[in-house]
Write a structure and sequence with these properties.
- The termini are far apart.
- The protein folds into 2 domains: 178 residues, Bacterial extracellular solute-binding protein, family 7 (D-Maltodextrin-Binding Protein, domain 2); 145 residues, D-Maltodextrin-Binding Protein, domain 2.
- The longest helix is centred in the C-terminal third of the chain and has 35 residues.
- The chain has a 6-stranded mixed β-sheet, sandwiched between helices.
- It contains 12 helices and 11 strands.
- Helix 2 runs antiparallel to helix 9, helix 4 crosses helix 12 and helix 6 crosses helix 11.
- It has 347 residues and is α/β, with parallel strands linked by helices.
- Helix 2 links the parallel strand 1 and strand 2.
């Protein structure tokens, strides 16, 4: 198997060298591979950013750059996407920092902490500022892994969702096995006295239908694409139990082989795709909630007393997350301060 991956990587390198030489001469097109784990159709990330980004880059380069798209984990599992980009198996990969090793991109969890922001665009644009150019996340999370952010998003604030157990108060959440993703959501679940179970998104349906988990900390836009709307019966609304960061990256080695005109086209399209993606979530949230309510999903407004208690429970999560990473030699408190500043500047 090791020899196989080496061969695939070598083929990718040789293709890159040939492609860039031909591109420079203006004789041949450059075809780049894009891989992710999203369903082949109907997912808000794909519909609002992935397809748009590829089309925009092709348009901006006069058709010189085109793409081969591999959705639904066709080139590898969600947890392996970073390695696929690093090895050259794919040129561009969807990477969710929460789904890969905690040691790879832990500081990106700053945009996944509960209580940080109320809209996707607030969190997304603050994250974008820190993760591009000379931002602290670009230097501390992306550069050490040899990759560069092309576009990405911080989801809407997550809610607690249940397949069977009725939720009416915080007490009902205690003891539930909740799907989480990453350290920030793990901390939030434990504060609620729930049991965190880490799962990549494509694994949720089987776990929920089999009862391996009771529910999840999740967002409304991602229910239908994974057919989870037919399983979830109760969901909180208007809370902020955390979020998820989703990025598309390219390896620095691959990036440096691209002409500057292509690099510019990619980054221009990336910023536009990022803004489109967060705006689509914010715009469609109430529509999604109304649709799911019509389908029979019970929307739960927590009692005022519970809301106040929740603020106290989750207040320490941000500090606990940052202090824990600082002890591991990661400048999380510095990142948290920078993220809060970016949020304030964007408001």
């Amino acid at each position: 198997m090791k020899h196989y991956w080496k061969l695939v990587g070598l083929c990718g390198v040789l293709f890159s060298v040939w492609g860039n030489g031909a591109l420079a001469q203006g004789k041949e097109k450059l075809v780049l591979r894009v891989a992710d784990s999203f369903p082949t159709s109907g997912h808000w990330v794909v519909d609002n950013s992935t397809k748009f980004w590829m089309e925009e880059v092709t348009r901006a380069t006069g058709g010189t750059v085109t793409f081969e798209y591999y959705p639904s984990e066709q080139l590898g599992k969600t947890k392996d996407m970073l390695a696929l980009a690093q090895s050259g198996v794919t040129d561009i990969a969807y990477v969710a920092p929460a789904f890969i090793s905690d040691n790879k991109m832990p500081l990106s969890g700053v945009a996944e902490l509960p209580g940080s922001f109320t809209t996707s665009c607030q969190g997304t644009l603050a994250y974008w500022k820190l993760a591009t150019k000379d931002g602290i996340l670009a230097e501390r999370d992306f550069a050490p892994n040899g990759v560069r952010l092309l576009w990405g998003v911080a989801t809407l604030p997550y809610q607690i969702m249940s397949a069977k157990k009725k939720i009416e108060s915080l007490k009902d959440i205690e003891g539930m096995k909740l799907r989480t993703a990453g350290a920030a959501l793990d901390l939030a679940a434990r504060k609620l006295k729930a049991v965190p179970v880490r799962l990549a998104t494509p694994e949720i349906y089987d776990a929920l239908s089999r009862g391996t988990i009771d529910g999840m900390i999740y967002s409304f836009p991602s229910l239908a694409p994974y057919k989870l709307d037919g399983l979830v019966k109760y969901a909180t609304v208007g809370e902020s139990f955390g979020a998820l960061v989703a990025t598309y990256v390219i390896s620095e080695a691959r990036w440096k082989k691209l002409p500057e005109s292509v690099q510019k086209a990619m980054m221009d399209a990336g910023e536009e795709a990022t803004r489109r993606l967060c705006a689509s979530q914010d715009r469609d949230l109430e529509i999604d909630i109304a649709k799911f309510r019509q389908q029979g999903l019970t929307m739960v407004q927590l009692p005022a007393a519970d809301k106040k208690e929740l603020q106290g429970l989750l207040a320490g999560v941000q500090a606990e997350w940052a202090d824990g990473l600082d002890k591991r030699g990661k400048p999380a408190n510095e990142v948290l301060k920078a993220f809060r500043s970016a949020l304030q500047q964007g408001r």
